[in-house]
Design a protein that fits this description.
The strands form three sheets. This protein has a five-stranded parallel sheet, with helices on both faces. Strands 3-4 form a two-stranded antiparallel sheet. Strands 8-9 form a two-stranded antiparallel ribbon. α4 packs across α5 (141-152) and α6 (200-218) crosses α7. With 235 residues, the chain is an alpha/beta fold. The longest helix has 19 residues, at 200-218. The chain has two domains: 2-152, Alpha/beta knot (3-Layer(aba) Sandwich), CATH 3.40.1280.10; 168-229, tRNA(m1g37)methyltransferase, domain 2 (Trp Operon Repressor, Chain A, Orthogonal Bundle), CATH 1.10.1270. The chain has seven helices and nine strands, in the order βααβββαβαββαββαα.
């Protein structure tokens, strides 16, 4: 069972997502365990203060280091552990990152920032900084939930049909192919004939061609990276 320890000022943020859908089933089946740790519980002043003004001036407040350190240090340390800080300055979340975290670690400690961020000394606790993308959000709980979902769904037993994980966008560096269900025709839009042909070889070939075409058209960055990874033609 993989353990997730989320250091958050707003534990209630996770209540509904952790009780619903795929995440809820994974936790109920003990595929993963999620602990919510509030730094406010580790403050020592009567006001339970977790933020303060930055040295040198500036706009906004920073999360103080003491409650975060105390919260993280209160946790058990499993052998394969990563301590993550959710921050716009971190590496962007990608499918390979989720795969690495799901396969190589037994414990993820996730620190959710707030206000203008955290005191930089918190980075001495952190082994990896992670970002949802090149933009700023109001809290670290949003990217933390995205990471939680992306990692847990890759753990064995979470997705009923494990083979389906092999044929998704980004698994091989390409976008997914178009998919259809019944009815065969809807408002003048028909399901491609090849998908109704029963010819599995032709279907596989069509799907692969669609992956190539979609990736080239919609994500030139992924396309160039995929092309560069391909072996040179035989001579």
């Amino acid at each position: 069972m993989m353990q997730f320890d989320i250091v958050t000022l707003f534990p209630d943020f996770f209540a509904s997502p952790l009780a619903s859908g795929l995440l809820g089933r994974a936790l109920a089946n003990q595929i993963a365990q999620v602990n919510l740790i509030n730094p406010r519980d580790f403050t020592t002043d009567k006001h339970r203060k977790v933020d303060d003004e930055p040295y040198g001036g500036g706009v906004g407040m920073l999360m103080k280091p003491e409650p975060i350190f105390a919260a993280v240090e209160s946790l058990p340390v499993l052998p394969r552990r990563e301590v993550l800080l959710m921050t716009p300055q971190g590496e962007s979340m990608t499918q390979p990152l989720f795969q690495t975290l799901a396969q190589q670690y037994d414990q993820l400690v996730i620190i959710c920032g707030h206000y203008e961020g955290v005191d930089d000394r918190v980075l001495s606790l952190v082994t990896r900084e992670v970002s949802l993308g090149d933009f700023v959000l109001t809290c670290g709980e949003i990217p933390a939930l995205a990471l939680l979902n992306g990692v847990i769904r890759l753990r064995p037993g979470t997705v009923a049909k494990a083979d389906s994980l092999k044929y998704e966008s980004f698994e091989d560096g390409l976008l997914d192919y178009p998919q259809y269900t019944r009815p065969a025709e809807f408002r003048g839009m028909a399901v491609p004939e090849v998908l109704r042909s029963g010819n599995h070889e032709a279907i596989a070939r069509w799907r692969y061609e669609q992956q190539l075409s979609r990736t080239r058209q919609r994500r030139p960055d992924l396309w160039q990276a995929w092309v560069q990874r391909q072996p040179p033609p035989a001579t």
